[in-house]
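PROTEIN DESIGN WORKSHEET
SECTION A - STRUCTURE
LENGTH: 447
TOKENS:
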């Protein structure tokens, strides 16, 4: 690959995300990687936000509820995979953060590898990694930096890469970039329990109805306690995972209605945690945010401790409990050794959690010539798997756009405006199809 072009004084950074939670992770990761200990960018960074068009592309409301990530959401734009690669080629980014599902990361890695000059590439996970560990990791292999959110994850990641004979040097221990907020301090007269709901865990109507019923019963048992159901999205919106049975709809059908001390809430998780006295969840990453702030936290065992639920990740944490125990006033106590390995940095080390990753990125940016991207999956190592992943993003096995996938250049303002209007209409139809029609069809098929 030819030497990189001389950099300008401002570091050019792009974040490509495909859901609201990954947008939050990617944008804040970019900030952490380009901001020094004193809070000033070193060197100065211009961060651009791009959303990969798909079924979970966040709405403006979802972007707003993510909170301040240091990027003007009015300037964030949607792109296809091919449009993203053209943008990287034309804009000359120095650093790209891929906040995407594994298959999309792999496609972008091969697409970037096919460019004449490439940026430094960083990727990772938005939260607890409790499923598809090998699959997800190998789809991320090839990035310059694969961020691990804890020492526990870093050890697992390296073991997977080394176990298949892949280079594990990209694995870099850091932490979740959105931890923060004031340490927990009880307030006189405040007693608030928050249940952090998840879009796809559990996934059955019976299990979700059970959790909702127990939460409502808890509110009735403790009429002076404020009980909040924290939701990630409104009906019709998608997050990282598809939610086909929204709690809002289930709550409307709950016999007996809802007690006055029970409410559904949305918004930024950090703001909800500001008034939380007990955080309850099945396996949400919100548990790590809560633990970072030393807020009492409980992980439910009511539906079992199972890999499909993700709560097996909390084995050894001291947090596993049930609604029966919580109804009786029990508050789990976290195991300090377990906490130390999970990247929650409750011991005050969070300020330095990104030092190693930042140093690695700085060293890569200083190179006159970056090595070629070398993902583990190639047409030779995975000929029955990789081409399909690339084709879903309109890329050929060599990483170049498939014939007809490249966008034609606009020939004038009028034509450009017409094309943009058509794109907006198509985008709305696509979202309606995947977010509203498809779930209904799937449910009908199960009848």
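SECTION B - SEQUENCE
RESIDUE ASSIGNMENT:
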């Amino acid at each position: 690959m030819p030497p990189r072009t001389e950099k300008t004084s401002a570091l050019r950074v792009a974040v490509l995300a495909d859901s609201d939670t990954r947008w939050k992770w990617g944008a804040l990761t970019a900030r952490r990687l380009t901001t020094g200990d004193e809070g000033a960018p070193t060197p100065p960074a211009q961060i651009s936000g791009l959303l990969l068009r798909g079924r979970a592309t966040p709405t403006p409301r979802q972007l707003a509820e993510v909170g301040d990530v240091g990027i003007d959401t009015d300037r964030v734009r949607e792109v296809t995979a091919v449009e993203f690669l053209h943008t990287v080629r034309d804009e000359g980014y120095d650093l790209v953060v891929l906040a995407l599902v594994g298959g999309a990361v792999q496609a972008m890695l091969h697409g970037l590898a096919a460019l004449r000059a490439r940026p430094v590439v960083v990727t990772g996970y938005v939260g607890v990694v409790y499923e598809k560990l090998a699959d997800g990791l190998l789809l991320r292999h090839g990035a310059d930096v694969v961020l691990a959110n804890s020492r526990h994850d870093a050890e697992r990641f390296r073991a997977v890469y080394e176990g298949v004979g892949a280079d594990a040097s990209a694995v870099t221990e850091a932490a979740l970039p959105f931890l923060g907020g004031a340490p927990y301090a009880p307030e006189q007269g405040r007693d608030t329990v928050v249940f952090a709901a998840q879009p796809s865990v559990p996934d059955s109507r019976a299990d979700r109805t059970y959790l909702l019923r127990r939460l409502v019963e808890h509110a009735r048992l403790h009429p002076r306690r404020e009980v909040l159901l924290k939701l990630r999205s409104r009906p019709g919106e998608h997050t990282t995972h598809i939610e086909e049975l929204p709690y809002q709809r289930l709550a409307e059908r709950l016999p007996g209605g809802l007690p006055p001390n029970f409410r559904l809430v949305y918004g930024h998780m950090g703001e909800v945690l500001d008034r939380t006295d007990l955080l309850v969840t099945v396996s949400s990453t919100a548990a790590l945010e809560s633990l970072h702030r030393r807020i009492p936290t409980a992980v439910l065992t009511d539906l079992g401790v199972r890999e499909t639920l993700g709560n097996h990740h909390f084995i050894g944490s001291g947090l596993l409990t049930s609604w029966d125990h919580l109804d009786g006033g029990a508050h789990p106590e976290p195991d300090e050794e377990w906490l130390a390995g999970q990247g929650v940095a409750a011991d005050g080390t969070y300020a330095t959690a990104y030092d190693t990753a930042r140093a690695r990125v700085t060293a890569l940016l200083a190179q006159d010539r970056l090595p070629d991207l070398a993902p583990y999956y190639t047409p030779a190592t995975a000929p029955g798997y990789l081409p399909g992943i690339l084709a879903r993003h309109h890329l050929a096995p060599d990483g170049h756009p498939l014939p007809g996938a490249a966008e034609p250049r606009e020939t004038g303002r009028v034509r450009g405006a017409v094309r943009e209007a058509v794109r907006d209409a198509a985008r709305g139809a696509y979202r309606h199809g995947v977010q509203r029609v498809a779930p209904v069809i799937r449910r009908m098929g199960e009848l």
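SECTION C - NOTES
Residues 1-5, 408-421, 442-447 have pLDDT under 50 and may be disordered.
The chain is about 35% helix and 15% strand.
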